[in-house]
Design goal:
Layout lengths: L1 E6 L6 H13 L4 E6 L4 H9 L3 E3 L9 H14 L3 E4 L2 H14 L2 E6 L9 H9 L3 E4 L14 E3 L13 H11 L5 E6 L8 H9 L6 E6 L7 H10 L6 E4 L6 H7 L2 E4 L10 H7 L3 E5 L4 H4 L5 E4 L3 H11 L4 H16 L1 H13 L3
Parallel strand pairs: 1-2, 1-4, 2-3, 4-5, 5-6, 6-7, 8-9, 8-11, 9-10, 11-12, 12-13
Helix pairs in contact: 1-14, 3-4, 6-9, 7-12, 10-13, 13-14
């Protein structure tokens, strides 16, 4: 069995991560190649993992003819029995070439825009798509209602992301946390990630037994802007910003008593919360995207993206046994969202239809 997984995202998004893990899952039973844009994150990751690569042109750059032809050449070279795509451009190309090459076509839906309800999209899914993986049940609409489907909110490598006592001690010492509780947030500095909302929520906490550590690289929000906001809110003495990439992020996650995911949009593929959970950390999140389908009591809670409600949820969790909740979070991550638990499900869903 030969499987071609097309990862044509330009960045290391949660959708790219999900697609890559589907490729890794299929590689347990199939000969897998990844088609990607040269030198972009998916390309570099596949090269690092030793997965065979096929180069495709960026379908969002210039005319569609070159991307179509590079996709066609990938099919001619690899001759797959099945093709998995994560975006609409390559799904369209896959539909146009499906009869000529005789493969099964699958689509992973994990884009913040959801499943577009257009005439073309309905036609492609009805006539050419053999199955879809959706990252949230919110995506299920009339376009894919009759298509075989599997819901995968996200997949976490629970071997890579696991609790480290030594990592916890080292990071807490580095951040000079002492006996205070450490609240952690990990995500690029982008308005959609809700850092301003979180800082305003933190400013409403009438206690000083915690430290907030914000880990993330600048995207569409400058670090200096968040530092300035923390000063205006008089919480700069309780907030630590880490703008550079942390090599062993699992050590930081292990050090945190509580994780917060304050996003105001997107989060249709769950990644950072599952990584925190795998490191035995309870989670407070907003209820956007797929988050409320994953973050549930007792190990977590998802609330509306409102500063008062977020502050209240954080305050409640700071007063409970977070170590016990962290243990529960780890159990859920392993049983429901780990690569080892989901790989057989993914392979059965796809390969049984080939």
């Amino acid at each position: 069995m030969r499987a071609l997984v097309v990862l044509d995202e330009r960045w290391n998004s949660a959708l790219t991560d999900l697609g890559f893990k589907v490729a890794l899952s299929l590689s347990r039973e199939c000969n897998v190649s990844i088609a990607a844009i040269r030198d972009f994150p998916a390309w570099r990751r596949a090269k690092k993992e030793g997965i065979p690569l096929l180069e495709i042109a960026d379908p969002r750059k210039g005319l569609s003819l070159k991307p179509f032809l590079t996709f066609k050449r990938s099919l001619e070279k690899f001759k797959p029995n099945l093709v998995v795509t994560i975006r609409g451009d390559e799904m369209l190309f896959g539909a146009l070439l499906k009869k000529s090459f005789g493969y099964r076509l699958f689509r992973i839906h994990g884009n913040a825009r959801g499943v577009r309800n257009s005439l073309l999209n309905r036609f492609i899914h009805r006539k050419f798509v053999d199955g879809v993986i959706v990252s949230t049940k919110k995506f299920i609409n009339s376009v894919i209602s009759s298509v075989p489907k599997l819901t995968i909110h996200g997949i976490v490598d629970t071997n890579m992301f696991s609790f480290s006592e030594s990592g916890k001690r080292a990071f807490r010492k580095r951040l000079k946390v002492g006996e205070r509780k450490l609240i952690g947030v990990v995500g690029r500095l982008d308005p959609v990630k809700g850092h301003r909302l979180l800082l305003r929520a933190i400013s409403k906490l009438r206690r000083d037994d915690f430290v907030l550590a914000v880990v993330g690289e600048e995207k569409n929000t400058k670090l200096s802007e968040l530092k300035e906001l923390s000063k205006k809110l008089n919480i700069s003495d309780r907030v630590i910003f880490i703008g550079n990439r942390i090599e062993r992020i699992s050590d930081f996650m292990s050090a945190c008593d509580l994780a917060v995911v304050p996003s105001v949009g997107s989060e249709v593929v769950v990644r950072a919360p599952l990584e925190f959970m795998a490191c035995k950390t309870a989670v407070v999140s907003t209820n956007v995207g797929a988050l409320p389908e994953v973050i549930r009591p007792p190990f977590g809670v998802a609330v509306e993206p409102d500063e008062k409600k977020l502050s209240s949820a954080i305050n409640r969790f700071l007063d409970v046994d977070l170590e016990k909740l962290g243990e529960l979070a780890r159990e859920v991550a392993v049983e429901k969202y780990s690569f080892s638990s989901l790989s057989p499900v993914i392979n059965s869903f796809i390969l049984d239809r080939v």
